[in-house]
Write a structure and sequence with these properties.
single chain; 200 residues; mainly alpha; globular
Length: 200
């Protein structure tokens, strides 16, 4: 799941500059990004990208919603640092690969000709790009970020696995609901938006 290809064909650039470029490209030109930036077996840059997004999201939560900081010995500052380390080393990789596993099973059921697991992991990782900002103290912004992330997942599945947007939506709905609705708090934000609109 964490294979690092030294010289991938069409894979992502490494390092902080590569992460920054990937973030901009997937937000601005998602179809081109998923078409050219996802390579077989080149999961490590995607994993690093997902960890960066998760840490940025958690940093926003901890900074603006202190009651979200887990309680460890040493006070709030130490607890926040330990919490971020836990996110980076355990939670982000686990959620990424669980989501990718769910997505892979649905692709096996719903798509006859598809690319490999590695490419699916990368699609899930890069689709989370908007959630860098989802931890800021605005449920409206969180809703936009998570909805855009779900849309990016559908676009990525469509481009990488060469299926119609409708089929990509059908096989991607459950993983999107888990990742963006639950893990990144999109359902709470969605309820807030509906409440503001007077619909609930």
């Amino acid at each position: 799941m964490t294979t690092w290809v030294e010289h991938p064909e069409g894979g992502r650039e490494r390092g902080p500059r590569g992460v920054a470029r990937a973030w901009v490209e997937v937000l601005v030109r998602p179809r081109r990004f998923f078409r050219n930036g996802v390579a077989p077996g080149d999961q490590a840059p995607g994993l690093v990208f997902a960890v960066v997004v998760a840490v940025a999201y958690s940093t926003g939560l901890f900074a603006f919603t202190p009651d979200r900081i887990p309680s460890f010995a040493g006070g709030p500052a130490v607890s926040a640092l330990l919490g971020l380390a836990l996110v980076a080393l355990l939670l982000a990789p686990a959620v990424l690969h669980l989501t990718a596993a769910i997505q892979t099973v649905l692709l096996l059921v719903g798509v006859r000709d598809r690319r490999g697991i590695s490419e699916t992991v990368q699609v899930v990782a890069y689709a989370a790009a908007p959630c860098v900002l989802a931890g800021l103290p605005s449920l409206g912004l969180r809703f936009v970020c998570t909805a855009y992330g779900a849309a990016l997942l559908v676009v990525g599945l469509s481009e990488v696995h060469d299926v119609s947007p409708r089929r990509a939506l059908a096989v991607g709905a459950l993983p999107a609901a888990f990742l963006f609705g639950y893990a990144f708090g999109g359902w709470t934000a969605f309820e807030h938006v509906l409440r503001l609109a007077g619909l609930i």
